Amino acid sequence: MSEHRYTVLGMACDHCAAFVAGALEPLPGVTGIAVDVDTGSVTVTSTGDLDLADVRVAVEAAGYELADS
């Protein structure tokens, strides 16, 4: 199992968190998602490494921006 933490810009409420989680959930290998709106962080647990480009596309599709690491 791998755990990755990302900063997502623009999340302001639980509705935002649900949109982001829903966009990330279908990525191959994702087994869990924890969103903290207060800090703007998203922690994704997966069976292996995730492609950052895929994560970025999913977050942008939900209407938010992935901060550069």
How would you portray this structure in words?
With 69 residues, this protein is of the alpha+beta class. It has helices at residues 14-24, 52-61; strands at residues 2-9, 30-36, 41-46, 65-66. Strands 2-3-1-4 form a 4-stranded antiparallel sheet, covered by helices on one side. It contains 2 helices and 4 strands; from the N terminus they run βαββαβ. The chain is 30% helix and 33% strand. The model has no long low-confidence stretch (mean pLDDT 96). The protein is globular.
Helix content percent band: 25-40%
Instruction: Indicate the low-confidence ranges by residue numbers.
Output: none
Mean pLDDT: 96
Quaternary status = single chain
Helices and strands, in order, run as EHEEHE
Name the overall outline.
globular
Tally of extended strands?
A: 4
List the helices and strands and how they pair.
Layout: E1 2-9, H1 14-24, E2 30-36, E3 41-46, H2 52-61, E4 65-66
Antiparallel strand pairs: 1-3, 1-4, 2-3
